[in-house]
Specification:
The chain has about 475 residues and is mostly beta strands. The protein contains nine helices and 26 strands. The chain has three domains: about 160 residues, no CATH class; about 120 residues, no CATH class; about 180 residues, Sandwich (Jelly Rolls), CATH 2.60.120.260. It starts with a helix and ends with a strand.
Length: about 475
């Protein structure tokens, strides 16, 4: 975002004033990492952009689309459930992008569907789109990581409305290292906060196969794990489940993370969905409240919205940990958790499929080609307790032939490091660059950020460097200590 904010106006459009306008833009470039960290709660900074505060303010028809491989799918059920305007949803096997071209796929002929929508609402034509089911969802039989870089196997399913009449919450009970369909005797489980869990889910939004969640066995080995018996029949889940847990912690600030995986007969563990909560946010995200060490709390931890078919013979696994690093910054102190399993249940949205699924009217389209040369390198290095994650994207170039301009860029290149068991050693660094070049006009921008933390504050260093024809135009540096506020 820093590189975008600092990009220059085009002199062929802006004219001779481009340089002065660019300088104004550069001088106004904000320290966005520090600004975002300064708002760790659901305050006015975030609420001004939230439609959830006033659903009735949306008065136009809505078609909302999301992807299984994206991390922005939770808005689909929320919008379909709360809006009163005509609405539809589509949830497919895609990354952060459109249904076509789409990776990993299968992709859809999205233009055809979009034209149906616009012709119905803008031209009054009878396209039939509003007679279709409210929600169409791709139901995978494997995760994207299992089959990468190929398309995800599965089938399209449809729901006439949402919430769906054929989706019901099914509780699973914890005990003796397993997940059961009936309540179990009272039992406690201990979660070691010094265990580092999360290296199998490094990226928040994966854009390439190398960024997908890896096979989860290593993370499972450092978690408290509960499995069902092998399933006697296929099990479809569709929706956002939840963990209802009675938990206590040894420190005032602690997380609880749960990963739901499918365990194959070969013993492989593949991530289906997950949830994590800073337990100081147990009563909401506006006013965190520190934990009283040793005191038990009843907490709801929502899982991310997803669709998946667990195959007969596989197991459903719930893996619980305090950390999910490097996706989530570690708690300021190592915090151990105690779970009262007798008061803890996993609730999964189980779908009972109809005898005949509604047909998918949208034709398949060619998927987005995936070239390994364009994938980032992901290196995870361990030397004793020291762990680092280094993600490096190959440099990219492009041409805008119509105006004789060449483009270049690299990143976001990220380095994260920490010593296991010592959360105050966590450091995050990122760098991205962009270049714009024509004869006699050569602009380059580089943005850098580094964050480390004490128990009291995040320490943020940001730098924006801009050059024109090789000469420095701006070298803006910002340092700030941001109070952690139970983060």
């Amino acid at each position: 975002m820093k590189v975008v904010l600092a990009a220059p106006p085009d002199p062929q459009i802006t004219g001779e004033a481009w340089r002065a306008e660019w300088q104004k833009r550069l001088d106004a470039t904000p320290p966005i990492a520090a600004r975002w960290l300064s708002h760790p709660t659901n305050d006015a900074y975030w609420r001004q952009g939230s439609v959830a505060l006033d659903w009735e303010s949306i008065r136009c028809p809505v078609y909302v689309i999301g992807g299984l491989v994206d991390s922005y799918g939770n808005e689909i059920p929320r919008l379909l459930s709360h809006l009163t305007v005509p609405r539809k949803g589509l949830y497919g096997p895609w990354q952060h992008g459109y249904p076509s071209p789409a990776g990993p796929g299968p992709a859809l002929d999205w233009a055809w569907e979009e034209v149906r929508w616009w012709r119905h609402w803008l031209m009054g034509e009878a396209t039939g789109i509003m007679e279709d089911p409210m929600l169409r969802v791709y139901m995978p039989t494997a995760t994207a990581a299992q089959v990468a870089p190929g398309p995800i196997p599965g089938a399209w399913v449809a729901e006439p409305t949402w919430p769906a009449p054929d989706v019901a919450t099914k509780p699973y009970y914890f005990g003796h290292g397993g997940l059961h369909e009936a309540p179990q005797p009272a039992e406690d489980a201990k979660v070691n906060g010094a265990e580092l869990v999360g290296l199998g889910k490094v990226e928040w939004v994966p854009f390439a196969p190398t960024e997908l969640p890896m096979e989860q066995s290593n993370d499972d080995a450092h978690s408290v794990v509960f499995d069902t018996a092998p399933l006697g029949a296929d099990l479809q889940i569709l929706g956002a489940g939840a963990l209802k847990v009675r938990v206590s912690a040894t420190k005032p600030v602690a997380h609880l993370a749960i990963r739901i995986c499918e365990v194959t007969p070969k013993g492989e563990s593949w991530l289906v969905t997950y949830g994590i909560l800073n337990l100081t946010h147990r009563d909401g995200h506006e006013h965190p409240i520190a934990l009283v060490p040793g005191q038990a709390y009843d907490v709801d931890i929502p899982l991310n919205f997803t669709a998946h078919r667990f195959g007969a013979g596989t197991k459903v696994r719930a893996a619980i940990s305090e950390s999910l690093w490097p996706l989530v910054w570690p708690s300021p102190e190592v915090a151990d958790l105690s779970l009262d399993l007798g008061a803890t249940t996993l609730h999964l949205p189980v779908r009972t499929p109809p005898v005949v699924e509604a047909p998918m009217p949208i034709a398949l389209a060619p998927p987005l080609p995936s070239d390994p040369k364009g994938w980032p390198r992901m290196n995870i290095n361990k030397t004793g307790p020291e762990i680092s994650v280094v993600e490096t994207w190959p440099a990219s170039t492009g041409e805008v032939a119509a105006i004789g301009e060449s483009l270049s860029g690299s990143g976001p290149n990220v380095t994260l490091s920490m010593t296991a068991g010592d959360p105050l050693t966590c450091v995050w660094r990122a760098e991205q660059s962009a270049g714009y070049r024509r004869p006699g006009w050569d602009v380059a921008i580089k943005a850098q950020v580094e964050i480390h933390a004490t128990a009291e504050a995040f320490h943020v260093e940001e730098r924006t460097l801009a050059t024109f024809n090789g000469e420095t135009v701006l070298d803006l540096r910002h340092q700030e200590a941001v109070p952690r506020r139970l983060a």
